[in-house]
């Protein structure tokens, strides 16, 4: 049985744990460089704020509504994340860390198991020991477990597929919220009248394969309770895509560039994690097709890199170049996405047969610099160290972290005070 | 690999790590947090202002324990005391705070660190 365990508003919760004065108050966390809101708790959502809102636009609103604002403190988040993972590892034999705040826990299929009981125990233990609220989704496949987790967030923290009204749940679940079904797939599926997870489950497999590729077909299988996502396969992806839809439309090139740089960095981290290099970079830019009042513009461009690489500056440079080429002013953009395509193994040192010794040496140096970057980012959390160009400060270089909280758990000079 | 020449060291096989205070102070690492005491409320228990408190969230709070809890938007530390049927959070002067629904205990103090 698969448990998907996800921390509730992870970044905001990390901040709240060490600020007893913020209990029950709205909290938002900003991206590196204080660009956009990247995380917020339920109270902040209730105050009308959205993930993706640019900070300069919402600062006044936050001040008016008494919202506490934090720059992202990856040192703190990485430490809290590792604490939670150690608790999971103590309670479950097989733990797969999926992201900084999400894990899959695999339990053997026992004869008469009380999985919800185990889930409650995990939840209570993590909360008692670390202060972090988590939710648990329990299902026979990863896709369903992730869906159950979303439902758990609204129903006491634990949701078990086996104990629910399966048909009713699938019918009420929008297809765009199914794991792996992104914006473009949703749009395509709508043309076939597929709006809910139930519709998708009943989509014939051969159609799914044709229209959604092999990944989409696996999603359909997973909705039918057949584990189809193989961990190995999933980890070794053929392409890596990173994007998010903006909560508020974005119009300026500078804002799009910043978002794209952040997504490229995330994609390249994943690329390097699976020890691949990339040959093609593609960038996708779109306005909101459901917004009928505004003019529409959607474009996609890709470029081949000189040689396959995992060198972030080169990949990011290519992505930004593509974005600048397709950007048109006067539109309200909803989404920018970077896609790394044509991946291959990065086991041999890269380079061309006829490369000069200088170029080979440069490549070797680049390799060790990237390894250093990866090491720091894996130790202190993604985004700790990034390229200068992705840390665009309005009015100067260097990262803006005006609302950074202390490293409560890792810096002896920054301990919380007790009275 | 270093070359070994001459006689092997007689201490070989007896190497030990240096003393690690974590093994003394930290029993459950993911649940252990450190905080800094401000003020002299706990002098009667030998805790001075500026001392570092070791707090274990996994340790069940029992009467007699020093516990850190949330109060009026701050962390406070007091002794958990039983008084008849009731539990109180009390300081050295015997002034007690009643435990109610609002009281959230952060953790139990399991050690104090102080440099002289």
UniProtKB/TrEMBL annotation, chain A:
Keywords: DNA damage, DNA repair, SOS mutagenesis, SOS response. GO terms for cellular component: cytosol. SUPFAM superfamilies: DNA/RNA polymerases (SSF56672), Lesion bypass DNA polymerase (Y-family), little finger domain (SSF100879). Residues 2-182 form the UmuC domain. GO terms for biological process: DNA repair; error-prone translesion synthesis; SOS response. It comes from the Bacteria. Gene3D superfamilies: 3.30.70.270, 3.40.1170.60, 5' to 3' exonuclease, C-terminal subdomain. GO terms for molecular function: damaged DNA binding; DNA-directed DNA polymerase activity. Belongs to the DNA polymerase type-Y family. This is Y-family DNA polymerase. It comes from Teretinema zuelzerae.
């Amino acid at each position: 049985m698969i448990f998907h365990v996800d921390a509730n508003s992870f970044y905001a919760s990390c901040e709240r744990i060490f600020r007893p004065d913020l209990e029950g108050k709205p909290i938002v966390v900003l991206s590196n460089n204080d660009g956009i809101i990247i995380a917020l708790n339920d109270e902040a959502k209730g105050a009308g704020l959205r993930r993706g809102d640019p900070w300069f636009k919402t600062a006044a609103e936050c001040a008016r509504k008494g919202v506490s604002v934090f720059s992202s403190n990856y040192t703190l988040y990485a430490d809290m994340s590792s604490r939670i993972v150690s608790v999971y590892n103590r309670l479950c034999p097989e733990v797969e860390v999926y992201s900084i705040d999400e894990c899959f826990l695999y339990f053997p299929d026992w004869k008469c198991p009380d999985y919800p009981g185990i889930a409650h125990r995990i939840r209570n233990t993590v909360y008692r020991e670390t202060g972090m609220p988590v939710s648990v989704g329990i299902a026979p496949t990863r896709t369903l477990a992730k869906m159950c987790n979303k439902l758990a967030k609204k129903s006491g923290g634990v949701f078990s597929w086996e104990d629910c009204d399966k048909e009713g749940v699938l019918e009420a679940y929008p297809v765009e919220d199914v794991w792996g079904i992104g914006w473009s797939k949703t749009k395509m599926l709508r043309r076939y009248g597929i709006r809910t997870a139930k519709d998708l489950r009943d989509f014939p497999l051969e159609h799914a394969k044709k229209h959604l590729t092999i990944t989409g077909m696996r999603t359909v299988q997973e909705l039918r309770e057949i584990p189809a996502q193989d961990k190995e396969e999933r980890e070794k992806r053929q392409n890596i895509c990173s994007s998010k839809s903006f909560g508020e439309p974005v119009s300026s090139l500078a804002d799009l560039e910043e978002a794209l740089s952040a997504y490229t960095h995330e994609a390249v981290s994943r690329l390097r994690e699976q020890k691949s290099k990339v040959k093609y970079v593609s960038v996708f830019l779109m306005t909101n097709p459901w917004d009928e009042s505004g003019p529409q513009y959607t474009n996609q461009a890709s470029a081949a890199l000189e040689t396959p690489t995992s060198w972030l500056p080169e990949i990011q440079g290519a992505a930004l170049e593509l974005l600048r080429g397709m950007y048109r002013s006067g539109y309200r953009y909803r989404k920018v996405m970077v896609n790394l395509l044509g991946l291959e193994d990065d086991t041999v040192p890269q380079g061309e047969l006829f490369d000069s010794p200088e170029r080979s040496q440069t490549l070797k140096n680049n390799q060790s610099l990237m390894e250093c970057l990866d090491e720091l980012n894996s130790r202190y959390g993604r985004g700790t160290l990034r390229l200068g160009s992705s840390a665009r400060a309005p009015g100067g270089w260097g990262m803006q972290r005006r609302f950074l909280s202390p490293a409560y758990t890792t810096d002896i000079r920054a301990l919380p005070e007790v009275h | 690999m270093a070359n070994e020449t001459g006689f092997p060291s007689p201490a070989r096989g007896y190497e030990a790590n240096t003393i690690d205070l974590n093994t003394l102070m930290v029993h459950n690492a993911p649940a252990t947090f450190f905080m800094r005491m401000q003020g002299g409320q706990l002098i009667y228990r030998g805790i001075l202002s500026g001392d570092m408190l070791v707090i274990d969230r996994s340790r069940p709070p029992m009467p007699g324990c020093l516990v850190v809890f949330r109060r009026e938007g701050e962390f406070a530390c007091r002794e958990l005391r039983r008084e008849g049927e009731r539990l109180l959070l009390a300081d050295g002067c015997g002034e007690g705070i009643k435990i109610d629904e609002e009281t959230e205990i952060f953790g139990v103090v399991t050690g104090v660190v102080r440099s002289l």
